[in-house]
Design goal:
4-stranded mixed sheet, 110 residues, globular, 4 strands, 17% strand, 3 helices, alpha+beta
């Protein structure tokens, strides 16, 4: 299910950086069912929009949800991914620009 913040991120990204293709719901951790909200596969850069953080019983702030998030992040880092984690309030142009600059920098170094 796509959240409002994910749709907002996707709109900002596509209008600002149409040349940098992101894959939505990318299964980037080998051997696991975890999916990144968005991924730039060539640079192994993932973006996670952490929704539900203000809900009393949201998926990301329960013990089980935090455990899953930590496991996903640790496995991603172990497999060479850089993961940007954004709250819905962080889905704004300055973060979009920073992530795009990071991806371009990684592409330039390869």
């Amino acid at each position: 299910m796509t959240s409002t913040a994910e749709r907002q991120f996707e709109h900002l990204w596509e209008s600002s950086y149409p040349d940098l293709d992101l894959v939505a719901e990318y299964q980037g951790i080998k051997g696991r069912k975890f999916r990144f909200d968005f991924a730039h596969v060539p640079s192994k850069t993932a973006i996670e929009i952490q929704g539900g953080i203000y809900l009393r019983h949201g998926g990301h702030n329960s013990a089980a949800g935090l455990h899953r998030d930590y496991e996903k992040l640790n496995l991603a880092q172990w497999q060479g991914w850089t993961v940007f984690q954004l709250s819905p309030d962080m889905v704004e142009q300055s973060w979009i620009d920073l992530i795009a600059d990071f991806i371009r920098g990684k592409n330039d170094s390869n």
